[in-house]
Design a protein that fits this description.
The chain is α/β, with parallel strands linked by helices. The chain has three domains: 230 residues, P-loop containing nucleotide triphosphate hydrolases (Rossmann fold); 158 residues, Rossmann fold (3-Layer(aba) Sandwich); 72 residues, no CATH class. The protein is built from 18 helices and 22 strands. Strands 6-7-8-3-9-10 form a six-stranded mixed β-sheet, with helices on both faces. The longest helix has 16 residues.
Length: 481
């Protein structure tokens, strides 16, 4: 009997069914890889297991007993621990304090605390200072602290979600050594990764998810990278395909330098849509943010961009991935959000001319088909898709020449997704240059004239239309060099 069994797990988010009756079994002392494209349901399934999400249907058994954790703490007490992509550490506490979080006594004796931390880190062969604040460590070292904290809980099941995204080669070797040690101690390890070379190096078995369903579970020795990609991509589905049209003259060139990113030069043509592909931590997001002045430094047409205000002055606008935290002020009206970046152009003697403001807002509400068409409604009350339209309206109101987009259709329904694609095509035909960073391979293939594939902080391939989904997935995962 398997140590852990998940049967018929279903989970819906609004109108999207993220999990459609998924089964998964983990054996004691095995490393079981979960693979699939973004949105396939891997992280959602593991969040159900870890207590972070409640399933709509299905059952879980651990050691032959029902497991129904109402939260993460209950799952951890039962023996299920998950190491997330987003680190759940407290930056201003020390390494030792973070390792003991949840178990700190009312009165902390730091000598004993540091001694226990040193013993744990030594057992794991990690050379990390117990008394250093986590905020002083690099991203890779912070990830290893999170792993050490999970390791200390002596779990029966440990889940790793893209754990190597921020690690150096040496840190990856350390992590793999720790995971293999967990296997020898009888722990069941679930390992999520887009990097196929890691799967073939680590895993005993592989489960492939596609569109919220399990399509295969098999021993890693029975698979090849090409076969995994074929299972991930699956059947042909109706996909958006942007009509071909020639790009115009070169608008300008981005010269980008940023931490953990090899120097990048990108010449962008008028009317062209360039895609950036890669897994989390590959460098695609860092490159896009540098072009807008959020990190590192960039040149556009030889002019420096060190801050977002520099980008706006050079008619470069970024539509961020997190529309709620970075794109909108949720407690302001939709109208106020749309004009937020162009207020000086609407003023006369320091006062906003309402007629000008109304014309701008009405134009973009109509062009983007924002629903409901109520500019006075608070931004937080719009659906996710219409919030994304508000962010686009805010950017387009600045009359940009270059539009940068990070995950432009994340969290929007299919109908709205097609509306966004049609709009981006219309903008490109109108002469804008667009750069789209996306984890959605189908989106990149249907929308872009060419795609730059990032791995390890550098561009490893440049693919031009017509783009094949299988080839992009193979390049991103490393199945093809």
């Amino acid at each position: 009997m398997a140590l852990l069994e998940m049967r018929g797990i279903r989970k819906r988010f609004g109108g999207v069914e993220a999990l459609r009756g998924v089964d998964l079994a983990l054996e004691a002392g095995e490393i079981h890889a979960l693979v699939g494209e973004n949105g396939a349901g891997k992280s959602t399934l593991m969040k159900v297991l870890s207590g972070a999400l409640q399933p709509d249907a299905g059952e879980v058994e651990l050691d032959g007993r029902p497991l129904r954790p109402r939260n993460v703490a209950e799952a951890q007490r039962a023996g299920v621990v998950m190491v997330y992509q987003e680190l759940n550490l407290v930056p201003e506490l020390t390494v030792a304090e973070n390792l003991a979080l949840g178990h700190l006594p009312v009165v902390v004796r730091y000598g004993r605390l540091y001694e226990a931390a040193r013993a744990l880190l030594g057992k794991m062969a990690l050379e990390l200072p117990p008394d250093a604040k986590v905020s002083s460590l690099g991203a890779g070292a912070q990830q290893l602290v999170a792993v050490a904290r999970a390791f200390a809980q002596r779990a029966k099941v440990m889940v790793f979600d893209e754990p190597t995204a921020t690690l150096s080669a040496g840190e990856v070797d350390q992590l793999f050594g720790l995971i293999r040690r967990l296997r020898t101690e009888g722990v069941a390890v679930a390992y999520i990764s887009h990097r196929l070379e890691e799967i073939f190096e680590l895993a005993d078995r592989v489960t492939v998810l596609r569109d919220g369903e399990r399509v295969a579970t098999t021993g890693v020795g029975e698979l090849t990278p090409a076969r995994v990609v074929a299972l991930m991509v699956g059947r042909e589905v109706r996909a958006y395909q942007r009509p071909a049209h020639p790009a115009g003259e070169v608008l300008g060139t981005f010269e980008v330098q940023a931490p953990r990113l090899a120097p990048l030069s990108l010449a962008l043509r008028r009317g062209e849509i360039v895609g950036l592909a890669g897994v989390v931590g590959s460098g695609r997001s860092e490159a896009l943010e540098a072009m807008f002045g959020l990190r590192g430094r960039a040149l556009w047409r030889g002019e420096p961009i060190g801050r977002p205000i520099d980008a706006l002055r050079r008619r470069v606008f970024l539509v961020p991935a997190d529309r709620k935290a970075q794109g909108l002020v949720l407690e302001l009206a939709a109208r106020e959000n749309v004009v937020l970046s162009i207020l000086p152009t609407l003023e006369r003697l320091g006062v906003v001319v309402r007629a000008r403001e109304r014309r701008v807002v009405e134009e973009w509400f109509q062009r983007l088909s924002v629903r409901p068409p109520d500019p006075e409604r608070l931004a937080r009350t719009f659906s996710g898709g219409n919030q994304q339209k508000l962010v686009l309206a805010k950017g387009l109101a600045t009359a940009p020449e270059v539009l940068l987009l990070e995950e432009p259709t994340r969290g929007v329904d299919v109908a709205t997704r097609y509306e966004v694609y049609a709009l981006l095509d219309d903008l490109a035909r109108g002469g804008l240059g667009l750069v789209v960073s996306s984890s959605d391979t189908e989106e990149l293939c249907g929308l872009c004239d060419r795609v730059l594939v990032f791995r390890g902080g550098r561009v490893v391939a440049e693919l031009t239309a017509p783009l094949r989904r299988e080839e992009v997935v193979a390049r991103v995962t490393g199945a093809v060099a």
